Amino acid sequence: MQIDWKFNPGEENSSQEELLEAISLDDGAIAVSKDWAIEKGLGETSPFPWDESKLVYFIHAYHGLHCVKLIYRFVKEVRDTDTQTVPLEHVIHCLDAMRKDIMCYADDTPRPRRYEANSTVAIKAEGELRQCRDWSVLESWAKERPACFQAGNADPGDMLHSQLRFCPEDSPYLPAVRQYFGKDDE
């Protein structure tokens, strides 16, 4: 798979921001059976509130993208405004999670490194070939295990239910969501 490395971080680039904003994190929360989670050796997590036989997990790759988007927003706010809406603690958490992911995957692909005069960026890797997983396969797999998640809209008093209430109309969990929030079936 060829990676597009043409983005120059020293320049304003609306296409980079558009790429980040186009990434939906909503499919990153999955609901899987308790048996499947035990079989895979997954750690303890929250129960899926709409089906007691399932547990909720957030896929690492989606969490990494969440962190990239959050850190990008934080950096832009620090640069452009006097108000930061992203808590520093969340940024530190994301940096630590990304460090752990990078060390876990230990990608040993040699990366081209060229230095250019009057540039603070030493890496320009146009044409680099990498062995990558197919994101669309992960996305499809996650969509088959929906947890009715939507990024944002969290109620700090009820994080679990408030973020896992966005079931599509054809979801078998929608009646339970509507009942919990006191909505009728229409």
Describe the structure.
Strands 1-2 form a two-stranded antiparallel ribbon. Helix 3 crosses helix 4 (88-105). The radius of gyration is 20 Å and the shape is globular. The chain starts with 13 loop residues before the first helix and ends in a 6-residue tail after the last helix. It has one domain (14-180). Helices cover 40% and strands 5% of the residues. The chain has 7 helices and 2 strands; from the N terminus they run H-E-H-E-H-H-H-H-H. The chain is mainly alpha-helical and 186 residues long.
In a few lines, what is going on in this structure?
This protein is mainly alpha-helical and 186 residues long. 40% of the residues lie in helices and 5% in strands.
Key phrases:
two-stranded antiparallel ribbon, 186 residues, 40% helix, 7 helices, mainly alpha
State the helicity in percent bands.
40-55%
User: What is the topology, as strand order, of the major beta sheet?
Assistant: 1-2
What's the story with the biggest beta sheet? 2 strands, antiparallel
Tally of structural domains: 1
- The global form is globular
Count every beta strand, where a strand is a DSSP E run of 2 or more residues.
Answer: 2
Rg for CA atoms: 20 Å
The fraction of residues assigned to DSSP E strands is 5-15%
- Unreliable spans are none
Query: What class, by secondary structure content?
Result: mainly alpha
